[in-house]
Design a protein that fits this description.
By secondary structure, the chain is mainly beta. It has a single domain, classed as Ubiquitin-like (UB roll), CATH 3.10.20. Helices cover 9% and strands 30% of the residues. The protein has one helix and six strands; from the N terminus they run βββαβββ. A hairpin with a 2-residue loop joins strand 2 and strand 3. The longest helix is centred in the middle third of the chain and has 8 residues. 19% of the residues are buried.
């Protein structure tokens, strides 16, 4: 069953960012935050593996601290196929 949560006191649609990891996802107030900040904010809620690759709108993120999320972006944390969790 997919885990879906809302963090940040019911994020307004214009500031909400969908963050996914595997079958789990959450919506958070993330516009203007870095990918690294959102990883830290959501790591327990959706069980983000520290080795997972950040992907925004289908494109891998090279520098999570420098990449700032803007309105309408979707952030996903993925592991290469064949990798197992800890």
């Amino acid at each position: 069953m997919a885990q879906e949560q809302m963090q940040g006191n019911a994020a307004a649609p214009e500031s909400a960012v969908v963050v996914k990891c595997g079958i789990s996802q959450t919506k958070v107030r993330g516009v203007g935050k870095s990918v690294a900040d959102l990883r830290a904010q959501c790591k327990k809620a959706i069980n983000i593996d520290p080795a997972a690759q950040a992907v925004v709108d289908g494109v891998p993120v090279a520098d999570e601290k420098a990449f700032i999320i803007t309105e309408g972006m979707e952030l996903e944390f993925v592991k290469q196929s064949g990798q197992k969790g800890i």
